[in-house]
Amino acid sequence: MHYHIDKTAAQSAYLQLYHQLRRDIVSGVYPLGTKMPSKRLIATETGVSVITVEHALAILCDEGYLESRERSGFFVSFAAADCFPVSETETERRMTVSHGTEDEFPFPSLAKTMRRVLSEYGESILVKSPNNGCAELRGTIAAYLSRSRGISVQPGQIVIGSGAEYLYGLIVQLLGRERVFALEDPSYDKIRRVYQAHGVTCEMLRLGSDGIRSDELTRASATVLHVTPFHSFPSQVTASAGKRREYLRWAEERGGYIVEDDFDSEFSVSSKSEDTLFALEPERSVIYMNTFSKTIAPSMRVGYMVLPPALSEAVHSSCSAGSSSRKTSFARSASNCSFCDEWLSTSVNSPISSDAAAAPLRNDVIRLRLIVFPPRNRERLSG
Predict the structure, then answer these.
(1) Which of 57, 161, 209, 329 is the least buried, fewest Cβ under 10 Å from its Cβ?
(2) Full 3-state SS string of 123-168
(3) Cα–Cα dist 50/45, whole Å
């Protein structure tokens, strides 16, 4: 061994050791299956504590370079043939382009996840999924919604899309461009722009302290109401229980629909999440929407919506006829679903938010399996 720890460097000792060990593993100094030097031997040579060595080895295990065998030590599980070569310079250059810090996201689990997807799923990740999303994925989302949001639906009522924007367009196709859509004022302006791009007329209804003002609802000519009952953006207004009932009465009186955008619900600091409009009226008027770009990462453009029975039948008829959108291919692909499966499976105990108050309240979100192959994940879920 020839490892050196610079105790005057800004980088932590365990990270210095991690990089040196990883370099030797990748370069073949320690081939696949080789037993690594003991923790105490490494600690003695480098002049650091055994705990520091354990931290470095733990990261290597998380990333898939090593595996720990009880009472036997650490063994190399990395095979160079499974990877694409990337220069250190290129890696450093890419890592400078960031919108966060390493402490805010468990990158070691991400690296391990990507390797496991490639090795375990093989060519099956290239398979195209059905137009409304993988059946197994929709089944798992249905189970999650029942457990965490009080929404009881059949998997056939769920449609997977490549983010919310695609789903907004599909809603316009389902409900018709002749309808007027009402939106919260203020609201995320891109929602309005997407609807208008699909030829829809939009009305903006002013928010009060507990949701859209009653006089605004009364004057509106719209028959579709797009709302975010929990933490509306950017106002952060949460609709009261009474206001939620008012929204439902509004839709019933007009023979209209409510699009419930529930993107922020998993970040509640309450032990009980707010009741959804869909849970209050599951049969006819509410379309429930959520996305995983907030709970996993912004680059994971996976959204879904839950339709009332009549609308879900219309969607299935459309999908059966072969209509689709090129924007949905990534979200519905087996590669993306299997990646989410592995990511969430191996990151159950990793906080996906730096917010200490939010992290322990999101176990259900982290355990949710966006899956292609259900048997293995049902075993993991039971664990």
Answers:
(1) 209
(2) HHHHCCCCCCCCHHHHHHHHHHHHHHCCCCCCHHHEEEECCHHHHH
(3) 11
Instruction: Identify the three-state secondary structure at position 37.
Output: coil
Which pLDDT does position 70 carry in this prediction?
A: 86
How far apart CA 188 and CA 228 sit, in angstroms, is: 10
Domain boundary among 280, 297, 326: 326
Beta strands in the chain, from DSSP E residues, in sequence order: 66-69, 73-76, 158-161, 180-185, 201-208, 211-212, 224-227, 257-261, 286-291, 303-306
Neighbour tally for 59: CB within 10 Å = 22
Q: What angle, 0 to 180 degrees and rounded to 10, lies between the N-to-C axes of helices 13-27 and 50-62?
A: 50
In this prediction, residue 308 carries a pLDDT of 92
Determine phi and psi for 158, rounding to 5 degrees: -105, 135
Residue 365: what pLDDT?
38
Q: Do residues 266 and 296 touch, judged by C-beta distance below 8 A?
A: no
Mean pLDDT value across residues 105-124 = 68
Provide the number of structural domains found in the chain: 2
Q: Which domain does 154 fall in, by range?
A: 135-326
166 and 313 in a single domain? The answer is yes
C-beta of residue 216 within 8 angstroms of C-beta of residue 260: no
Q: What is the DSSP letter of 38?
A: P
- Asked if residue 58 and residue 139 are part of one domain, the reply reads no
Q: What burial letters (b/e) apply to 204-218, b meaning 16+ CB within 10 Å?
A: ebebeebbbbeebbe
Q: What is the dihedral of CA 367, 371, 377, 382, to 10 degrees?
A: 40
Question: Which pLDDT belongs to residue 144?
Answer: 82
Q: What is the pLDDT of residues 76-107, one digit of tens each?
A: 987 765 554 444 444 344 434 444 444 556 66
Whether 57 is in a domain gets the answer: yes
Could you tell me if 153 and 52 lie in one domain? no
Q: Give the per-residue pLDDT at 218.
A: 95
Do 73 and 158 share a domain, yes or no? no
